[in-house]
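Memo to structure team: turn this sequence into structure tokens by end of day. - J.P.
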Amino acid sequence: MGLRLKHCLQKFRRYPLEFVGIGLLIVAPPCVYLYGVFWLIPDAFKSSSQLIQFIAYLMATWCVVGIWANLYLVRQRNSSIKGRFLPQPILATDESVDSNVSLTEANNGQQFMAKPFGSDDAWHICSNCEVYVPSRCWHCSGSCNTCILRRDHHCIFAMACIGEENHSNFLGLLLYLTIGTMYATIVLMIYSSNNFDTSYSWYFLKAFIPAIFLFWDFSIHNFLSSLCLIGSITSGTIFLIYFMGACKGETSADKRHKINRSIKGSSKYSYQNLKIFLGLNPLRRIIWPFHQVYKTDYTTSVRQNNY
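Reply from structure team:
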């Protein structure tokens, strides 16, 4: 216990921004949820039927469960090479190969490059981990400090890298953040209209420009209104960016290197690309956090879709 606490303190000193980010995702959703369940929803839906009130409570609860479950699974399914069997090849050389056989053929059709991008058959050496790793796998020099399979980026709000095994949960986290903050914004707007005689245009202006309520009309209610409205716009935009990337079958790293991952013959954005990228039933994988993990068998280069 003492060693784990010491390790956490060391990480906090090195990566304080990541602790702030994940702390915000852990603390903010339940605070907004409790304020909504015990204060906002009973007032905003007081004239509605019991069924509508039940749906309102159920939706708020499911949004919080979706955010927390996906956040937890993004961290648990870390996509690192730790614990994975990656066959380390013995490379043929010019002296050991017949003149009629190319080096690529002698090495079972695999090529080995210095960079982690290009052909999906091209493996490369990670100088940090000192092992051969597949294409699209590259080292996280941040708090992960290991190679991540099909690495997209390091998310400071999840304090984990987004890769092959947790990309669906990352999209699910963004989706539930978007739905939850949009729903909270609507409930807060109804409550403001009922109790403060506030027009919708003035409500959105105050919520979108925090300086208005910070200096002239500060309250917890106005603070949450601003937090939820800006949060819904931000998370929704990020979700669309990464979802469209998944529909192209590419990570953000592929996009930076201008590598086209779309299937030949398919459109630029297609369900087929999304299915290959996330696994069978990709939309269900995004909506349902507890799906089984999509893995690639790197010993045979065969994709396995578990569902």
